Amino acid sequence: MHLQRIPTKYVCLTELMLTGRRTRLLFDNFISNFIPINNGNNQGCPLSMIYYAFYNAGLLELSPPETQDEGQFGFVDDVSLLMIGNNFTETNKGLTDMMGRLVICSLLVWVVEPAGN
To answer: Rounded CA gap, 40 and 51, in Å?
Structure first.
């Protein structure tokens, strides 16, 4: 969310909503102790789609706008990369380049928002 320049107050609100969550298992007259939930959001939360849009934004903006031989498309937590080439080698080279940009994008996200935060 920081990379998308979302105001800090909304990032903090999201962090509050996703912090300190827990669940229990109930079956056959058994009730477990509370189990902490370390990731994800509430089932059916209407904000899920917005969160996924922020989460996938870097993937969906991977290709420069002027390119016509590569692209990506996604829905919720599924993203696909598309590369058009004249042969296997050219297409593979293009996809390899895209994957390299994904790694750089992922590292940047990790540096800005380290895991566990």
So the answer is: 10
Is the pTM higher than 0.70?
A: no
Return the domain boundaries, the chain.
8-112
- As given in the structure block, the two tokens for residue 102 are 């994904």
The residue ranges of DSSP E strands in the chain, in sequence order, are 22-23, 26-27, 30-31, 35-36, 70-75, 78-83
> For residue 71, what are the β-bridge partners?
82
Adjacent-strand bridge partners of 35:
23
Give the pLDDT confidence of 87-110 residue by residue, as tens digits.
Answer: 999 999 988 888 888 766 655 554
Distance CA 23, CA 7 (A): 30
Q: Which of helix, strand or coil describes residue 73?
A: strand
Please check the confidence at residue 49 and state whether its pLDDT lies above 90: no
Give tens-digit pLDDT for 8-20.
Answer: 888 888 888 778 8
